[in-house]
Amino acid sequence: xxxxxxxxxxxxxxxxxxxxxxxxxxxxxxxxxxxxxxxxxxxxxxxxxxxxxxxxxxxxxxxxxxxxxxxxxxxxxxxxxxxxxxxxxxxxxxxxxxxxxxxxxxxxxxxxxxxxxxxxxxxxxxxxxxxxxxxxxxxxxxxxxxxxxxxxxxxxxxxxxxxxxxxxxxxxxxxxxxxxxxxxxxxxxxxxxxxxxxxxxxxxxxxxxxxxxxxxxxxxxxxxxxxxxxxxxxxxxxxxxxxxxxxxxxxxxxxxxxxxxxxxxxx
Length: 267
What we know:
Blueprint: E1 2-8, E2 18-19, H1 24-46, H2 50-54, H3 73-77, H4 100-103, H5 105-117, E3 125-133, E4 136-145, E5 150-159, E6 163-169, E7 185-190, E8 195-199, E9 202-203, E10 210-212, H6 217-223, E11 236-241, E12 248-253, E13 258-262
Parallel strand pairs: 2-9
Antiparallel strand pairs: 1-3, 3-4, 4-5, 6-7, 7-8, 8-10, 11-12, 12-13
């Protein structure tokens, strides 16, 4: 399901986007978040009865009530794949230096091909597509080619919740805040009570460059969706970037408030 669209201003995207490399801090953050989600899931599981689990529509196909009594004799009787059943087409080399998988020749060619595929031209028509498939939400930066009437995904970002609105902006934030010139970013509003701003010129980014709002779950639970003077407490429904005063972004929320954010300070 596509829930929001936005064009990227033509000619502003970096010709060769940089590839993000995870830092030790980001790896530690991932571990902390994973542990927190596991603990939250365990807490919710303790509050769920066995009957509720068995009647969960999402688990019906697994027939958990008869899981232990399943007959696996048919599966055991089936012949599995033989270890050498598909050796046609395999190449053998007498010397390691002749093997392209070892000497790195194929790697160099592959890297060159990938770099060319990742290239963005100033004449490209770039479209941001917010979509959700199988409960997984993402932002796709797509290239539209009018000559062939085709649209393909250049790269994407994973989102924490269903996206409601996207806004393109060129004000530099996060890692590139002190760099001169205009940037290439997208602000994303979701059912979460905060706004994520992603750098469109960075590939494989695990986290947004800037988050507007609080990530403190205790503070959000305490607010319970009621208006708060410092952050949104419910889904962000809409946004508007000020093209004249480029560090200002306005947002409206289901918590019945409208907020004006200063992108230079994230408040």
